[in-house]
Write a structure and sequence with these properties.
By secondary structure, the protein is α+β, with helices and mostly antiparallel strands. It is built from two helices and eight strands; from the N terminus they run αββββββββα. The strands form two sheets. Strands 2-8-7-4-5 form a five-stranded mixed β-sheet, with no helix packed on it. The protein has a three-stranded antiparallel β-sheet with strand order 1-3-6, with no helix packed on it. α1 runs antiparallel to α2.
Length: 171
């Protein structure tokens, strides 16, 4: 009987771990990543220039957005694109990258249009990460594992306490 209890706790822990794992988002690698597509800076004023890179593509890649003309990115290289002068400040646009070595592989990166232009020499402001679009970019493996371990311990303790109470009431 004890093996059944241990198996049920292990199964509960596995379910808790699966439910706490971050959902896959259609957006590319988090900031600071050296692989995958990237738009630098991620916040830009209307009329400004962004640098587009698509690391990991063995052939040329294409980048498309509704705020700049489509561009081709050479393998291992980068290109600049000029954001439209009439882009609305505060709006967020998707930049879609298509790796030509695998045309079905698409990645999307968010590009935010700044409401005001940054002062000369100052870095561009960072975009607010809200919702699930890129809101979990700061979660790393250690934090996820720690949270899952806490959930498993809490569930196991609840099962243990519940079983002990039932055994203590024996008639």
């Amino acid at each position: 009987m004890r093996a059944v209890r241990i198996a049920s706790v292990a199964l509960l822990g596995a379910v808790a771990l699966a439910l706490t794992a971050p959902a896959a988002t259609p957006y590319a690698s988090p900031r600071g990543s050296t692989t995958g597509p990237a738009v630098t800076p991620s916040v830009i004023a209307p009329g400004g220039q962004v640098t587009l890179t698509a690391q990991g593509c063995s052939r040329a890649a294409a980048a498309r957005s509704d705020v700049f003309d489509s561009v081709d990115i050479p393998p291992g290289g980068s290109v600049t694109a000029t954001v439209a002068d009439d882009a609305v400040g505060g709006s967020v646009h998707e930049v879609t990258f298509i790796c030509n070595s695998s045309p079905t592989a698409r990645a999307k990166v968010a590009l935010t249009i700044a409401t005001t232009a940054p002062a000369a020499g100052s870095p561009a402001p960072e975009a607010v990460q809200g919702g699930l679009g890129n809101g979990i970019a700061g979660l790393n493996t250690a934090e996820a594992a720690g949270g899952a371990a806490l959930l498993v311990v809490a569930a196991a303790r609840a099962v243990f306490v519940t079983r002990r109470r039932k055994q203590g009431r024996g008639h």
